[in-house]
Design brief:
Layout lengths: L9 H53 L8 H10 L5 H28 L5 H10 L3 H17 L4 H23 L8 H21 L11 H10 L1 H21 L5 H34 L4 H28 L1 H9 L6 H8 L3 H16 L3 H26 L1 H26 L3
């Protein structure tokens, strides 16, 4: 790509450096996820491991509630305002996010205490839910500041270190024969560690002070302008986790554990497409005003993503049996075929992620909402018919149908917005 070869362009140089760090962080996270998944799957067994995966699924459905004033609002605001306003922008976003996060945690704990879910799942979720206090209020806010500069190294480096420490602590708890509910608190500790590291980094680059200020006007703007995006993102995560939510009511926790084992590995691979799009967005999409140049950039990014994700899916498909056997052991052999089919979802997921950048660039909040609402509805309808007949494979069909629906709206919007 000619554009990416212009090393003298500072935006390109920063983006390339970001991609290198992104690759390192993804490889670390994938390796850690494999190690942790293997340890927990072998230690807990398919039934309890299925409950662990279901607790994680519930967390990832609850978490978007704390995404009010997301990166799609915050990053462009930081980019387009003078540096002197950064403290007010971040401070106002923090107040909004921490308030929502505290409320979400309190409601989650109350839901668990009232006994609305399986006791083992609830005990696991109680610790996992504490991550809500750190992910968006601290990590998310500072990461938006880093994204605005196309410089994600501090966040990626802290995530790598925290992931490695978490893996070591998981191993220690397994060796100590700890209860299943103990592991959720390690995820909370990881989030707190990353948040603390990023706060210290931010203060170091601002004279040793945080310097965040509450601005009533900005607070109102973030609370209102981000509402439609917020609901859209909630729909998006419901779509991404709908397969496990619906499977949990049709199959045993042991069967859910087999499906989740395959999907957990696959989701780490799909996350590469999402993070790749986030790191290149400011330089090659958000800051580009010329429509012709933006169209060329998108064609190249679509092609690059399609080639990357197809090649990766082919390799993972070929090695599926080896990977499942080595990571999860003989009790999870039935997850192999599910994994082989699941990895190909990375191709439409990557294409959708690149197309979504244009929706975010032009702040097309109703397009985002309609897209993920359509994807959620399509996946739900397909799941209703496919899951009873094909179990986990039916859930994969639902995901594929949802991604196709989302991507089709992206392409329609791009054609409409960037027409000559």
């Amino acid at each position: 790509m000619k554009m990416l070869s212009r090393a003298e362009n500072p935006d390109v140089a920063r983006a390339l450096a970001n991609i290198v760090w992104l690759g390192m962080e993804r490889l670390t996270q994938i390796a850690v996820a494999i190690v942790i998944s293997g340890l927990l799957a072998r230690y807990l067994g398919p039934d309890v491991f299925g409950k662990w995966q279901y607790a994680n699924t519930l967390l990832l459905v609850i978490a978007p509630v704390t995404w009010v004033c997301g990166a799609e609002i915050l990053v462009p605001t930081i980019v387009h305002r003078p540096p002197g306003d950064t403290g007010s922008v971040l401070g106002s976003a923090f107040v909004l996010r921490i308030g929502v996060s505290v409320l979400a945690l309190a409601l989650t704990w109350a839901w668990i205490a009232l006994g609305f879910i399986n006791p083992t799942v609830g005990a696991m979720l109680a610790g996992l839910a504490v991550t809500l206090l750190f992910r968006e209020p601290f990590i998310g806010v500072i990461n938006a500041w880093l994204q605005s500069m196309t410089y994600s190294k501090p966040q990626l480096l802290s995530s790598m270190v925290a992931a490695i420490v978490k893996a070591a602590l998981v191993y220690a708890l397994v060796r100590a024969a700890a209860s299943a509910s103990s592991f959720g608190w390690l995820w909370a500790l990881e989030a707190a560690g990353i948040g603390a590291a990023l706060v210290l980094y931010y203060m170091r680059h601002h004279g040793g002070k945080l310097g965040w200020h509450f601005d009533r006007a900005l607070f109102r703007h973030f609370a209102s302008a981000g509402t439609v995006f917020w609901i859209g993102l909630i729909c998006m995560y419901l779509f991404l986790k709908l397969d496990r939510l619906m499977l949990a009511h049709r199959v045993s926790f042991a069967e859910l554990g087999l499906y989740s084992a395959a999907q957990q590995l696959n989701e780490n691979w799909i996350a590469l497409a999402l993070m790749l799009s986030q790191t290149i967005a400011p330089a090659f999409v958000y800051r580009v005003q010329d429509k012709a140049l933006l169209r060329r950039n998108l064609v190249r990014l679509f092609a690059m993503t399609a080639v990357l994700m197809t090649a990766g899916a082919a390799v993972l498909d070929a090695l599926a049996g080896f990977i499942i056997a080595r990571v999860f052991g003989p009790n999870y052999a039935q997850a192999t075929e599910i994994f082989r089919w699941a990895v190909w979802l990375s191709v439409p997921a990557g294409i959708e992620a690149i197309g979504n950048l244009v929706v975010l660039k032009y702040q097309a909040k109703y397009v985002l909402l309609s897209k993920w609402l359509l994807a959620l509805l399509v996946a739900a309808v397909v799941n209703v018919f496919a899951i009873p007949r094909f179990s986990g494979y039916g859930a994969l069909v639902g995901l594929a149908a949802g991604y196709a629906a989302a991507a089709s709206i992206n392409f329609y919007y791009i054609r409409f917005r960037l027409r000559a």
